[in-house]
Amino acid sequence: MILEEKTEKIKSLIREMDSTLVAFSGGVDSTLVLALAHEVMGERTLAVTAQSASVPNREMQASRQLAKEIGARHLVVRTEEMSNPEYRANPANRCYHCKTELYSNLKRVAEQNDISTILNGINLDDLGDYRPGIDSAREQGVRSPLVEAEFSKQDVRDLSRAMGLSIWNKPAMACLSSRIPYGQPVTAEKLSRVEQAEDLLLSFGFKQVRVRHLGTKACIELDQNEIPRYQSDESIQRSVQEKLMALGFSCVVLDPEGYRMGSLNEALLEHKDHV
């Protein structure tokens, strides 16, 4: 299908729903779902954003601004995945425990507001990566209209741009816990350290940023196009080194391969290859 046909299909899917609650992270995917749901349903759509230690404050602020931009009703709820020892242990299916906590909260909000359908922002490309959170969505009856209407990530960006959404080219974002290798415990201190480190790099104008928390080592991932600027600017390097070591890291390195989605999943694949 061409994009126009996919757009009509997703709107048609949403029209069949009585009311919708959108799991709204403020990323480009869930923002598009919210914008479409609001266009079709107006006040019968509610955006709900989860606030927790694993979500950067900058993303919370962005979600509030985006909901206002779209004109949608917006609610922030507190999730407590950090109280779950299975989540804190950081197993390979950590995301499953996080999403189960999220969707359980969203189902309660939906019931309280007499909302019939919960929607998320999963797209077709997400199905090709290791994402145990998708299993939780299926188990809890959460619908993925972008998948149902066959939207790729590029389709999402193209339609978002055509609709004038300000975040059409926003870089991908994952929770802060994704910066900690599987098997290493997730703590509030580590999450705060990563958030502050990434905020620093973003303040220098870098767009695609990950700071992997590898024990006492901070491994910085930037977009391949942004690496030369970091490498050639000694003042930025010096400032980053000083501030990250002040946060508690003993070593700061730049990953020469740059940012790639799910880089910590590479260890899982290597393990499977050797089993």
Structure characterization notes:
The protein has helices at residues 3-15, 28-41, 57-70, 85-88, 94-112, 133-139, 145-148, 153-162, 188-203, 227-232, 234-246, 266-274, and strands spanning 20-23, 45-51, 73-78, 117-119, 209-214, 217-222, 251-254. By secondary structure, the chain is an alpha/beta fold. The protein has 2 domains: 3-162, Rossmann fold (3-Layer(aba) Sandwich); 176-274. The strands form 2 sheets. The protein has a 4-stranded parallel beta sheet, sandwiched between helices. A 3-stranded mixed beta sheet has the order 5-6-7, covered by helices on one side. β5 and β6 form a beta hairpin. α1 (3-15) packs across α2, α2 packs across α8 (153-162) and α5 packs parallel to α6.
What's the average pLDDT? 93
Class by helix and strand content? alpha/beta
Let me know the CATH homologous superfamily of the largest domain: HUPs
The whole-angstrom Rg is 19 Å
- What is the CATH architecture assignment of the largest domain? 3-Layer(aba) Sandwich
Taken in chain order, the helices and strands follow as HEHEHEHHEHHHHEEHHEH
Would you spell out the secondary-structure blueprint of this structure?
Layout lengths: L2 H13 L4 E4 L4 H14 L3 E7 L5 H14 L2 E6 L6 H4 L5 H19 L4 E3 L13 H7 L5 H4 L4 H10 L25 H16 L5 E6 L2 E6 L4 H6 L1 H13 L4 E4 L11 H9 L1
Parallel strand pairs: 1-2, 1-4, 2-3, 6-7
Antiparallel strand pairs: 5-6
Helix pairs in contact: 1-2, 2-8, 5-6
